[in-house]
Write a structure and sequence with these properties.
- It is a single chain.
- About 25% of the residues lie in helices and about 35% in strands.
- A 5-stranded mixed sheet has the order 1-7-6-3-4.
- A hairpin with a 2-residue loop joins strand 3 and strand 4.
- About 15% of the residues are buried.
Length: about 70
């Protein structure tokens, strides 16, 4: 499982996907999130602005990424 280290209290889902290298740009993140292809903590989430905090795990195309502080 990959990890993303954050300095602030949260990171938005679309930003986290870009930081993890799962998408190249915000428009791509928006499309795959709205299509229901991304899960947060095991549940499909269609909100690009979903705030992820330490301990959250998001999944896309078989890759899991955990948020750490």
């Amino acid at each position: 499982m990959d990890t993303i280290r954050i300095r602030d209290e949260f990171i938005k889902l679309g930003q986290a996907m870009k930081l993890a290298g799962l998408v190249e740009e915000g428009a791509e993140a928006k499309a795959v999130i709205q299509d229901g292809r991304v899960k947060v903590n095991g549940e499909t989430d269609t909100r690009r602005g979903r705030k992820l905090v330490e301990g959250d795990i998001f999944s896309f195309e078989g890759k899991d990424v955990k948020i750490v502080k």
